[in-house]
Automatic annotation (TrEMBL):
Pfam families: PQQ_2. Part of the Bam complex. Part of the outer membrane protein assembly complex, which is involved in assembly and insertion of beta-barrel proteins into the outer membrane. It is found in: Cell outer membrane. It comes from Stutzerimonas zhaodongensis. This is Outer membrane protein assembly factor BamB. Belongs to the BamB family. The lineage of its organism: Bacteria, Pseudomonadati, Pseudomonadota, Gammaproteobacteria, Pseudomonadales.
Length: 382
């Protein structure tokens, strides 16, 4: 599990007081055998430096135009043709990267462990500007043509001018006492910047001035200890046809009305990785390793696959008729959207896959923790 610094200190104190007779943590569930229903083809693979590094990072690549952009923890940023893997440019930054990669309007955007946001030219990788913000940027910046918006580790949402990086506004909230290490990427429309907070709330802000338009609590902290009361919304948000889908750790999955923040439905869930959508369903990789399909119009669970317990799954991604999730041993699992059954499995690398798979059309890109980026397609039936 990924905890911010305060949490690490707290857990260290607790561990020091534990008995040496404590039970060993349960092993990940063994992989079940099944008959593959689809064949995957590796189109190309490439090494992206040191990948996610030793700390818990989610340096998810991004597809922009005909290119895919990826970064490693040490500040290497690469632009590649997304169908051939050919490197178009690479740039070694002078700072470690922690939040990657955002793209749009001619910019590639990354955040750093030093609390900076860097904007690079999409064609050359040359630095356009950099801006200092309040603390670590642990998720990709978002851009809408007017502003670049980032969420920082201290639960601030900050808007920067797209041309210069100058700060336009900053929204502050009180972070929870104990939180997971990470944030989701803000979701931007032309008028709203929407962010999930460590308090279990979602806030929608006016992109021009940063004024709150609405705020909605998705998860209510429960339990006696601070650990039991962690309800971070870290996995990012998903918007579809005016409905916002969100899920929290030790809290709930919910559908909200975008304009008002009104809760349309909600149900108990626990995830730190976010949700995906397809075939009229919302898919959640839960903290225990189960994958759940929920009807997007209600809170009805359509199916549950609990064969991946304790395998520390990535966020799900919808790929063709399937749901793809990575795990801590580097496997990529493909489940049917209809009933959650396994249809295929492949191994990216042994160090694990914690970043959400990236899907663009008929292509899926998986980025392993040690830096291997793989492009996959589905082989046509014989």
């Amino acid at each position: 599990m990924r905890w911010k610094t305060a949490a690490l200190l707290t857990l260290a104190v607790l561990a020091a007081g534990c008995s040496s007779n404590d039970k060993k943590e349960p092993e990940p569930a063994e992989l079940v055998k099944f008959d593959a229903e689809i064949q995957l083809k590796e189109e190309w693979s490439r090494s992206i430096g040191d990948g996610q590094g030793e700390t818990y990072n989610l340096l998810t690549p991004v597809v922009y135009g005909n290119e895919i952009f990826a970064a490693d923890i040490d500040g290497l940023v690469m632009a590649m043709d997304r169908t051939t893997g050919k490197v178009n440019w690479k740039k070694k930054l002078d700072v470690p990267v922690s939040g990657a990669v955002g793209a749009g309007y001619g910019l590639i955007l990354v955040g750093t462990l030093r609390g900076e946001v860097l904007a690079l030219d999409v064609s050359t990788g040359e630095e356009r500007w950099r801006s200092q913000v309040s603390s670590e940027v642990l998720a990709a910046p978002a851009v809408n043509g007017d502003v670049v918006v980032v969420q920082t580790q201290d639960d601030r949402v900050i808007a920067l001018e797209i041309d210069t990086g100058a700060q336009r506004w900053s929204y502050e909230s009180s972070p929870a006492v104990l939180t997971l290490r990470g944030t989701g990427s803000p979701l931007l429309t032309n008028e709203l910047a929407i962010a999930g907070l460590s308090s279990g709330k979602v806030v929608a802000l006016d992109t021009r001035r940063g004024l709150p338009i609405w705020e909605q609590r998705v998860a209510i902290p429960q339990g006696r200890s601070e650990l039991e009361r962690v309800v971070d919304i870290d996995g990012g948000l998903l918007l579809s046809s005016g409905t916002l889908y969100v899920a929290s750790f030790q809290g709930r999955a919910a559908a909200l009305d975008l304009e008002s923040g009104r809760i349309l439905w909600q149900r108990d869930a626990s995830t730190a990785t976010g949700v995906a959508m397809g075939y009229g369903s919302v898919y959640v990789s839960q903290a225990d390793g189960s994958v759940v399909g929920i009807d997007e119009r209600s809170n009805t669970v359509l199916w549950t696959n609990d064969s991946l317990l304790r395998r520390e799954l990535s966020a799900p991604a919808v790929f063709s008729s399937y749901v793809a999730v990575g795990d801590k041993e580097g496997y990529l699992h493909f489940l049917s959207q209809v009933d959650g059954r396994f249809v295929a499995r492949t191994r990216v690398e042994r160090a694990g896959v914690r970043a959400r798979p990236v899907v663009e059309g008929d292509w899926l890109y998986a980025y392993g923790n040690d830096g291997k980026l793989v492009a996959l397609t589905i082989r046509p039936a014989d």
